[in-house]
From TrEMBL:
Protein name in the entry: YicC family protein
Keyword Hydrolase: yes
Endoribonuclease YicC-like C-terminal domain ranges (all copies): 173-294
Cofactor(s) the protein needs: a divalent metal cation
PANTHER family: UPF0701 PROTEIN YICC
Family indicated by similarity: Belongs to the YicC/YloC family.
Coiled-coil region(s): none
Length: 294
């Protein structure tokens, strides 16, 4: 089944402890390129996170964005009770030495340096977060692949229609091709008769036939038509393949252009050229669609 390189998928998880949201999207690229934006806790697991993408996608630029937030309520500061006791004892000793009866205020002690320390968050379980991220990534990846498959089906339908149009044009070209030599024969005889009128020169039929045969050989496009039909058959078979086919279709389209250009150079006929231009236009549209195929 044909697959597009364009798609989008997302997945989300939330409980009392954390929240994670994953988005993955892909756009066209001749090769596979992954651009990951990960939270700090997952920075060291980039290869493990990207592995499912590399296993399921062959071509395209993949943009992966993972947002993770811990919902645990943790104090920003903690009380240094050891330092508080140390200050209290020190001030009481000084009071005794000075004979002071002033009470030591807890509020005043709280303002002294070192009483409050910056809190340290409890270490997060990186393995559990990694496991969650891979699970959600696979869910989002499946959604994106489903979208790529639907778009690929539409691309295949469009290319198949253009292939059928080219085949119908080739039938017209095949019917027209023999008439080109016949019309040239008539023009050649009429022109020769006009040029030799009033002279004693006679042009033998053998000379005319030889000239007509050379022209017919030079304008014969039978071989190119057969090769182009063969490429169209290969294109149809490729569209039905389950393997990634974008590069193969691109190659087939190049060969189709090659045969059509050769026919254009050989076709000494305005009607044939018009039909061949229509064929080239359809091939160009197929090539544009091939840019979107994985």
């Amino acid at each position: 089944m044909l697959k597009s390189m364009t798609g989008f998928g997302s997945a989300e998880y939330k409980d009392d402890a954390c929240m994670m949201h994953i988005e993955i999207r892909s756009v066209n690229n001749r090769f596979l390129k992954i651009d990951s934006r990960l939270p700090d806790v997952l920075q060291t697991f980039e290869n493990e996170i990207e592995r499912p993408i590399r296993e399921k996608i062959v071509r395209g630029t993949v943009l992966l964005n993972i947002n993770y937030h811990s919902l645990k309520q943790e104090s920003e500061y903690i009380l240094n009770t050891d330092k508080l006791r140390e200050y209290h004892k020190l001030l009481n000793d000084i009071k005794k030495e000075m004979g002071s009866r002033e009470r030591v205020s807890i509020n005043s002690l709280m303002l002294l340096p070192g009483i409050f320390l910056k809190g340290k968050k409890s270490p997060e379980n990186a393995d559990n977060i990694l496991s969650l991220s891979v699970t959600l990534l696979n869910q989002a990846l499946d959604k994106m692949l489903e979208m790529r498959a639907i778009e690929g089906k539409n691309l295949a339908k469009d290319i198949e229609q253009r292939k059928e149009f080219i085949l119908s044009m080739l039938q017209k070209i095949e019917m027209r091709a023999p008439a080109v030599a016949q019309e040239y024969s008539k023009r050649l005889k009429n022109r020769a008769a006009s040029l030799l009128a009033g002279t004693d020169i006679e042009l033998t039929d053998s000379n005319l036939y030889r000239e007509i045969a050379i022209f017919a050989e030079r304008c014969d496009i039978t071989e190119e038509i057969n090769r182009l039909k063969s490429h169209l058959n290969q294109l149809h078979e490729t569209l039905c393949s389950d393997e990634p086919t974008g590069r193969k279709i691109d190659f087939i389209v190049q060969e189709m252009f090659r045969e059509t250009n050769t026919m254009c150079s050989k076709a000494n006929d305005s009607i044939l050229l018009k039909d061949l231009v229509d064929v080239k236009t359809e091939i160009e549209k197929i090539r544009e669609q091939a840019f979107n195929i994985e």
